[in-house]
Amino acid sequence: MKTVREESINLQSALKDDLVRMISQIKEELYMQQKQLRENLGISFREFRETLDKNNELTNQVMTAKFESLEKFQNERLAALDKNQKESLERLDRTQNELIARSNEKLEHIRATVEEKLDKTLSERLGKSFETVGRQLNEVQQGLGEMKNLAQDVGGLKKVLSNVKMRGGFGEVQLQMLLENILAPEQFAANVAPRKGSRDIVEFAVKLPGNSDSIPHIWLPIDAKFPKDVYEKLQNAYDNGDPALIETAQKELDSVIKANARDISTKYIDPPHTTNFAIMFLPFEGIYAEVVRKADLLESHQKNYNVIVTG
User: Name one GO biological process term (predicted).
Assistant: First the structure.
């Protein structure tokens, strides 16, 4: 009798043979399936490629037809637009020509009317102008007589101004008129002795509020100066065009103005009874213009003498 071991060995051998056969069959079946799958995939790919080619060809045909239709439509629209534009330009040209013709007619009518009115107006104005010229000639003749009288008056004024005392009075009158125009009567006074205990009289002084009960008001001294003789020397030097004379006259005028500033400062400035500055008034514009040309001198008078020059 076979032993159990031998039977076990025989059984294992039989199982091994069966397993080998089964694996071989499975491999063969897998190979066949793969082969069939590759064949099926090849067929499907060829069919897909054919279908894709057909679709591409159909799409190309459709797109070509669309583009041809669009091009035809665009050409038709361009042709219609060109026709409409040409017709519009023709209408515009006709309208413009009609407007030009009507404008020319109106302008011609206006020109004729204007010429007619202009001739009439010109005749009327010429007549009036001749009347005006005649009247003005009469007025000129009268004016010549008045100028003769004025020349006599100017000569008299020159004689008046040649007197030093009269020149001072002339400056005072101008200063008084100026103060009366800008201040109330109670805001200034004439012939004031601003320094306490002094008899020096300033021509005019402006009354300003004081700083305490003991000094209810203070004075702002204003004195008019009229250095006519020195100024005339300077004007004559300018007329002669002599630089040396001009320089000499300018220095003399500066010296006179400086002396006047010192005189005003010494006589009339007395704080707290007055302001700490005074004003020198030059009544003639020419003299004032000549003085203010030198800003350093004005600053010097204000700094050294507390005198402001005005005119």
Answer: DNA recombination
Q: What are the tens digits of pLDDT across the range 220-275? A: 999 888 777 787 887 888 888 888 888 888 888 888 888 988 998 898 998 888 88
- What's the CA gap between 131 and 138, in Å, rounded? 11
- With vertex at residue 299, the alpha carbon angle to CA 310 and CA 280, rounded to the nearest 5 degrees, is 25
**In whole angstroms, what is the distance from residue 260 CA to residue 221 CA?**
13
- Give whole-number Cα distances, 202 to 194, 227, 268, 273, in Å: 7, 17, 7, 14
Cα distance between residue 234 and residue 256, in whole Å = 13
Whole-number Å distance between alpha carbons of 301 and 263: 11
As a whole number of angstroms, the distance between CA 133 and CA 150 comes to 24
**Domain range annotation of the chain:** 164-310
- Would you call 287 exposed, middle or buried from its count of C-beta atoms within 10 A (0-12, 13-18, 19+)? buried
Question: Could you report the per-residue pLDDT of 189-199, keeping only the tens digit for each?
Answer: 888 888 888 88
In terms of pTM, does the model score above 0.70? no
The DSSP line for 119-137 is: HHHHHHHHHHHHHHHHHHH
Let me know: does 217 contact 208? Beta carbons within 8 Å. yes
Low-confidence ranges of the chain (pLDDT < 70): 1-2, 114-171
What SS3 class is residue 199? Answer: coil
